[in-house]
UniProtKB/TrEMBL annotation:
<dbReference type="InterPro" id="IPR011712">
    <property type="entry name" value="Sig_transdc_His_kin_sub3_dim/P"/>
</dbReference>
<keyword id="KW-0808">Transferase</keyword>
<dbReference type="GO" id="GO:0005524">
    <property type="term" value="F:ATP binding"/>
</dbReference>
<protein>
    <recommendedName>
        <fullName>histidine kinase</fullName>
        <ecNumber>2.7.13.3</ecNumber>
    </recommendedName>
</protein>
<dbReference type="GO" id="GO:0046983">
    <property type="term" value="F:protein dimerization activity"/>
</dbReference>
<dbReference type="Pfam" id="PF07730">
    <property type="entry name" value="HisKA_3"/>
</dbReference>
<keyword id="KW-0547">Nucleotide-binding</keyword>
<keyword id="KW-0067">ATP-binding</keyword>
<dbReference type="InterPro" id="IPR050482">
    <property type="entry name" value="Sensor_HK_TwoCompSys"/>
</dbReference>
<dbReference type="InterPro" id="IPR036890">
    <property type="entry name" value="HATPase_C_sf"/>
</dbReference>
<keyword id="KW-0418">Kinase</keyword>
<keyword id="KW-0597">Phosphoprotein</keyword>
<dbReference type="GO" id="GO:0016020">
    <property type="term" value="C:membrane"/>
</dbReference>
<dbReference type="GO" id="GO:0000155">
    <property type="term" value="F:phosphorelay sensor kinase activity"/>
</dbReference>
<feature type="domain" description="Signal transduction histidine kinase subgroup 3 dimerisation and phosphoacceptor">
    <location>
        <begin position="201"/>
        <end position="266"/>
    </location>
</feature>
<keyword id="KW-0902">Two-component regulatory system</keyword>
């Protein structure tokens, strides 16, 4: 409900309040109502001033004609403020309904405004008072040749017609207002859903880039450490290590540039952002990178019908292996790593990374955010699988995940 409606308890939502500004349409409507009311005042005044013995019976005193015209003029001028005080004007003009003919048009317009902008209980109460005033009008201004009840009945019919018309207009305005609010709410909810989807998409991209950058930076650190501890290495090995460092650094910067561009861009959801989308087919290249860095990796691929593996499932398996190799380089330097893949449609996909538990602590352990395994757990949970990690009975560190692989 608007602030104006709060200030005026009888004011309907969407109606004009004390602080509402008159729009162009309101100016046109108010001008039309004023012209109609003035036209009625002139017509009633000229009709009353015309020489007729019948009118002489109705208006026994000549001063009544200009007095009635002044009353009608005052009521017509009051039409300009009827939107601000519909109830007050309706109550103030109720006595005019007992004797004034020139003010009839203005009184009906004010009454119509009251019905449109006030609640039903208020409109019914004013209607009842108006019907009582109409009964007095038939007594004070009788129609020659017409019985009393006939004049009263016509006045009541006109009043009830205005009431029905005003209630119809009010109901229609409420319906339009409700539909407009519903459309605005639906649009706001749609924008919220788009913003949430964009946020989730960017979060997923950032999580994937964390895995990518952690893998590449761990390679950089491993090669740099080898150069630091073997300054007397042959020139060929130094050149090869420097080339790997340069390539890994370039790839890391490229990945970082892509993810920053995606996170900054206000692209629509229909546009697929550019980002790494590895699959199971990229696992040999991932293992080759680790081997080139000096890590002993044994890849055992026992997956049946690998070409039928869903892309999302293959990407999740790739990230699990990537995180396992990254953790092995960080926390088990020099240990051999075994990567095992097995599975088939309807049986699921099992990914296992195993390495010996390190003896002692690394001289300079690589820093980490500690969120790698958390991200892997989230990926596995979203895929509907199971994840286990930790030291097993043989003393090895084991990272294993089972992912559902539907038959179709």
């Amino acid at each position: 409900m608007t602030s104006a409606a709060v200030e005026h308890p009888g004011l309907l939502p969407g109606s004009l309040g004390t602080t509402a500004r008159r729009t162009t349409r309101d100016w046109l409507v108010d001008s039309f109502c004023f012209v109609v009311s003035m036209a009625w005042v002139l017509a009633a005044t000229f009709d009353a001033a015309s020489p007729s013995p019948v009118l002489a019976e109705r208006l026994p005193y000549d001063w009544m004609i200009p007095a009635d015209a002044l009353v009608g003029l005052a009521a017509s001028v009051a039409l300009w403020v009827r939107r601000r005080w519909p109830l007050g004007l309706a109550v103030a003009t109720l006595p005019l309904g007992m004797f004034s003919v020139a003010a009839v048009a203005a009184v009906l317009i004010i009454y119509f405004t009251l019905v449109v902008h006030r609640r039903t209980t208020v409109a019914v109460a004013v209607t009842a008072a108006g019907l009582v005033a109409n009964m007095f009008f038939a007594l004070l201004r009788p129609e020659p040749g017409n019985p009393y009840w006939s004049t009263t009945l016509w006045g009541a019919v006109i009043t009830l017609l205005v009431l029905a018309w005003g209630m119809f207009v009010r109901a229609r305005r409420q319906l339009v207002l409700s539909l407009r609010e519903r459309a605005e709410r639906a649009e706001a909810e749609q924008q919220l859903r788009v913003a949430q989807a964009r946020h989730l998409e960017r979060t997923r991209i950032a999580r994937e880039m964390h895995d990518v950058l952690a893998h590449r930076i761990s390679l950089l650190s491993l090669h740099a450490g080898a150069l630091e501890f073997r300054p007397d290495a042959p020139a060929e090995e130094v050149a090869r290590a420097a080339g790997v460092i340069r390539g890994s650094a370039h790839a890391a910067l490229q990945d970082l540039r892509e993810v920053i561009g995606v996170l900054r861009a206000e692209s629509s959801l229909t546009e697929e952002p550019e980002r790494p989308q590895p699959t199971m087919a990229d696992l040999p290249a991932l293992v080759a990178e680790s081997r080139a860095a000096g890590v002993r990796v044994d890849l055992r691929d026992e997956v049946s019908d690998a070409d039928r593996l869903p892309a999302a499932l293959g990407r999740t398996a790739y990230r699990i292996v990537q995180e396992g190799l990254t953790n092995a380089r960080k926390h088990a330097t020099g240990a051999a790593v075994t990567v095992g893949l097995r599975g088939a449609p309807a049986d699921g996909l099992t990914v296992e990374i195993r390495n010996r538990w390190p003896v002692g602590e690394p001289t300079e352990p690589l820093p980490g955010a500690g969120t790698g395994l958390i991200g892997v757990a989230e990926r596995v949970a979203l895929a509907g699988g199971r994840l286990a990690h930790g030291r097993d009975g043989s003393g090895d560190f084991r990272l294993a995940a089972w992912l559902p692989w539907p038959a179709t």
